[in-house]
C-alpha cells in the first residue's frame, strides 16, 4: 500500500469496453472504476465519441487529415453518401455526424457487400499527398491491410475513440464528490480520466492534448499549493485487506470462466447496443447483459498463480474495472432520453435543452450495489448552446 497526502489520477479512458476501439490495450477504465467503487460519482459517462474512420476490425485511426486533403467516403454503390447527411460540410462534418451517417448507410443495406463497413477513397489524392503529407496513414493501410491507397479503396468503420465523461473535477483538477461540487481533499485527476467538461458532450479534434496540458499543469500547481495544508493519511487497514482479499479470491479461482471470454462478450454488447446509435430496447438489453456478466465475473479462472508480472491476474482485475465503467455508461445513457453530442438515441433523435441541459452523475450505492443517478446544472458563460446546422 502506498500512502500520500495528494494523489493525481492520469490513467486515461476506457475504450477497451468496446469491441472496436482506437484505444490502447491498457485503457480499461481503472482510474474511473476505483473511485466509483468507493461511492464517488462518475460524470457524463453516456457521452462517448466514435471516430468515423477507424480501420475495419482493427480500430486504428485514419486521421481526419485524409478527408481534409480530399478523401471521400463511399458506400456499396460507390456513392458519396455524406452529401445526403451534411450537404454543406459533407465528408468534413463532425465526428459524431459522420459516424452516425456511416451507421445509417450500413443499416439501410449499403455497407460494402452487405457488411458493417464502408470505403474511404483517397486514390485521387496522388503519390505526393499520400506519401509526403500523409505518410503515417498511408503506411498503416499498406502494413495492416496490404492495400495500396493509390489504387485501392480502404475499408473503414466507426471506432470507439474518446470518453467525454469521467471523474468530475474543477478547473484545478480537484476531484468532486457531489452535485454541490465539494472537493475530495488530496484527490486530483486530469486528462481523459477526468471530466472537467471542457469537451461538453462532444470533444473537438486535438482538444484532448490541450486538456492534458492545461489541466495537468493546473492540477499539479494546485497539488503543490495544497500540500502545505494536507495531512498525512492514516493507514486504512480495511481498504488494504479488501484489495488483498480480492486478489486472493482471483488467484484461488480454478473452475470459473476465463476473463477473456467475459471481456469479449462485454465488448460485443457495448459496441452493438451502447455504441454509435442507441435505443431504450438496445440499452435495456445491454444493462441486463452487463449485470449478468458481473455475476459471472464473481467466479473467474486465473491459471497463473505467480506473484510476478502476472498478466492473467491483471486481466481479471481489469475485467472488473470494465464492467464498472460499462454499468455507469449504460445506466446514464438509458436515462438520457435525447440526442446530444456523442450520445445518440434513435428513439429520441432531438436535443432537449428543457429537460436535459444538465450533467449526469452516476454513483454506486455501496450498500445495495445499484447505480444511482443524480444531476447538476450546466454552467453557461459566454456562448449559449445552439443546434448545429450543416
What this model shows, in words?
The structure is a single chain. With about 400 residues, this protein is α+β, with helices and mostly antiparallel strands. The protein contains 12 helices and 12 strands. Strand 11 and strand 12 (about 370-375) form a beta hairpin. Helix 1 crosses helix 11 (about 310-335) and helix 10 packs antiparallel against helix 11 (about 310-335).
Low-confidence stretches: none
Give helix and strand order, one letter per element, not per position. Answer: EHEEHEHHEHHEEEEEHHHHHHEE
The termini sit apart by 53 Å
Query: Quick check: average pLDDT?
Result: 95
Query: Which strands sit side by side, in order, in the main sheet?
Result: 3-6-5-4
Count the DSSP helices: 12
**Can you give the helix content as a percent range?**
25-40%
Secondary-structure content class:
alpha+beta
Shape annotation? globular
Which value, in Å, is the CA radius of gyration?
Answer: 22 Å
Q: How many strands in all?
A: 12
| Share in β-strands | 5-15%
Largest sheet: number of strands, sense, barrel closure = 4 strands, antiparallel
Question: What is the element layout, followed by pairings?
Answer:
Layout: E1 7-9, H1 30-36, E2 42-43, E3 48-55, H2 64-68, E4 72-74, H3 82-85, H4 95-107, E5 118-121, H5 126-133, H6 135-145, E6 154-163, E7 167-168, E8 174-176, E9 183-189, E10 194-195, H7 207-226, H8 237-252, H9 259-273, H10 280-296, H11 311-335, H12 353-356, E11 358-364, E12 371-377
Parallel strand pairs: 1-9, 7-10
Antiparallel strand pairs: 2-11, 3-6, 4-5, 5-6, 8-9, 11-12
Amino acid at each position: 500500500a502506498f500512502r500520500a497526502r495528494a494523489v493525481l489520477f492520469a490513467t486515461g479512458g476506457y475504450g477497451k469496453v468496446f469491441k472496436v476501439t482506437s484505444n490502447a490495450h491498457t485503457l480499461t477504465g481503472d482510474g474511473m472504476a476505483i473511485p466509483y467503487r468507493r461511492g464517488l460519482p462518475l460524470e457524463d459517462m453516456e457521452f462517448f465519441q466514435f471516430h468515423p474512420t477507424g480501420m475495419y476490425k482493427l480500430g486504428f485511426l485514419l486521421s481526419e487529415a485524409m478527408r481534409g486533403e480530399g478523401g471521400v467516403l463511399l458506400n456499396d454503390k460507390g456513392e458519396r453518401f455524406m452529401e445526403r447527411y451534411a450537404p454543406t460540410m459533407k465528408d468534413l462534418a463532425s465526428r459524431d455526424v459522420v459516424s452516425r451517417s456511416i451507421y445509417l448507410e450500413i443499416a439501410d443495406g449499403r455497407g460494402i457487400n452487405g457488411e458493417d463497413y464502408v470505403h474511404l477513397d483517397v486514390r485521387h489524392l496522388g503519390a505526393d499527398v499520400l506519401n509526403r503529407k500523409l505518410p503515417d496513414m498511408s503506411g498503416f493501410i499498406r502494413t495492416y491491410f496490404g492495400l495500396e491507397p493509390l489504387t485501392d479503396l480502404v475499408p473503414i468503420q466507426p471506432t470507439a475513440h474518446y470518453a467525454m465523461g469521467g471523474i468530475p473535477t474543477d478547473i484545478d483538477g480537484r476531484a468532486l464528490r457531489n452535485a454541490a461540487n465539494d472537493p475530495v481533499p488530496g484527490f486530483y485527476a486530469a486528462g481523459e480520466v477526468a471530466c472537467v467538461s471542457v469537451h461538453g458532450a462532444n470533444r473537438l479534434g486535438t482538444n484532448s492534448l490541450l486538456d492534458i496540458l492545461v489541466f495537468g499543469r493546473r492540477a499539479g500547481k494546485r497539488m503543490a499549493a495544497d500540500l502545505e495544508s494536507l495531512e498525512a493519511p492514516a493507514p486504512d487497514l480495511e481498504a488494504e485487506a479488501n484489495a488483498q482479499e480480492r486478489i486472493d479470491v482471483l488467484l484461488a479461482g480454478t473452475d470459473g470462466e476465463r476473463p477473456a471470454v467475459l471481456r469479449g462478450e462485454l465488448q460485443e454488447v457495448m459496441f452493438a447496443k451502447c455504441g454509435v446509435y442507441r435505443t431504450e430496447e438496445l440499452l435495456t438489453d445491454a444493462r441486463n447483459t452487463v449485470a449478468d456478466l458481473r455475476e459471472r465475473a464473481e467466479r473467474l479462472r486465473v491459471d497463473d498463480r505467480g506473484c510476478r508480472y502476472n498478466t492473467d491476474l491483471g486481466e481479471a482485475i481489469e475485467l472488473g474495472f470494465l464492467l464498472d465503467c460499462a454499468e455507469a455508461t449504460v445506466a446514464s445513457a438509458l436515462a438520457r432520453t435525447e440526442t446530444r453530442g456523442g450520445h445518440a438515441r434513435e428513439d429520441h433523435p432531438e436535443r432537449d435543452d428543457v429537460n436535459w441541459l444538465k450533467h449526469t452523475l452516476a454513483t454506486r450505492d455501496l450498500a445495495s450495489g445499484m447505480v444511482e443517478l443524480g444531476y447538476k446544472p450546466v454552467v453557461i458563460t459566454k456562448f449559449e448552446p445552439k443546434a448545429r446546422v450543416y
